[in-house]
Amino acid sequence: MKVKQQVETQQKKIYINNYIITKSRDEWIEGRIIKIIEVPKPSEEKPDMNIKKYIIYSLRHNIICEEEIPEHSIHRSSIENYKKFKLFPLRAYVEDIHIPVDLFEILKNDYKSVKDKKMIVLPSKFPISKILKEFSKFIVANKPSISEDEILEVVKGFTWYFDKLINPFILYECEIEQYIQYFEKEKNVNLPSNCYGPEHLLRMIFAIQKFLVKDCMDYETQDVIFEYSVYLCDFLNIFLKKYFQEKNYG
């Protein structure tokens, strides 16, 4: 019995950036832990013990939830808990684009810069291939419902999407000449995902959510692709200051 209790306690340990399932505003949602608050436990027997409360970021609403979630209401984002709490795919709640506000601002500024002929200098210090590898490690560490094999297949799929669809879905017309010249000059760079960076990855996410998801043959595939695009957005949002810097280019 003691061993079982220890195992259960270890399984309950929750850390910053772990994905969890909880109830907020009378609905079950998936979120990510962004802050852990320890407060004294109101107990005469053990006054030195603390209890934990959590601040979470809601993936469905793209906002930080206002309330502090008590520890007993936090559940790991596992396959079992998905079924237990009957969570539906995010596309059941979202009709179109689901990109956090700060990232959407980057998209708009990126478009404005290209219109003003201020194109990004290649290559990026953080090419898409590198970002996606870091994304896969992050997901494996923080989301128990996704296996390493599964996320590697997803990363492979995103990389394929980018390399095959960069022109005409991702590049603006005025960038095509730069694309051609770069690959004529840099013979050792064989794929766009090895030189283009986070801004173009963000454009791909927009294209996936806006157009490509709807072209999939079955709803289950649509749900999976859309869901992973949301996790990728969340990852980029967490590391926004790391990836989206001018000094990362050229």
From TrEMBL:
<dbReference type="Pfam" id="PF05712">
    <property type="entry name" value="MRG"/>
</dbReference>
<keyword id="KW-0805">Transcription regulation</keyword>
<dbReference type="InterPro" id="IPR038217">
    <property type="entry name" value="MRG_C_sf"/>
</dbReference>
<dbReference type="InterPro" id="IPR008676">
    <property type="entry name" value="MRG"/>
</dbReference>
<protein>
    <submittedName>
        <fullName>MRG-like chromatin modification protein</fullName>
    </submittedName>
</protein>
<dbReference type="GO" id="GO:0006325">
    <property type="term" value="P:chromatin organization"/>
</dbReference>
<dbReference type="GO" id="GO:0035267">
    <property type="term" value="C:NuA4 histone acetyltransferase complex"/>
</dbReference>
<keyword id="KW-0804">Transcription</keyword>
<keyword id="KW-0156">Chromatin regulator</keyword>
<keyword id="KW-0539">Nucleus</keyword>
<dbReference type="GO" id="GO:0006355">
    <property type="term" value="P:regulation of DNA-templated transcription"/>
</dbReference>
<dbReference type="GO" id="GO:0032221">
    <property type="term" value="C:Rpd3S complex"/>
</dbReference>
<dbReference type="InterPro" id="IPR026541">
    <property type="entry name" value="MRG_dom"/>
</dbReference>
<feature type="domain" description="MRG">
    <location>
        <begin position="95"/>
        <end position="249"/>
    </location>
</feature>
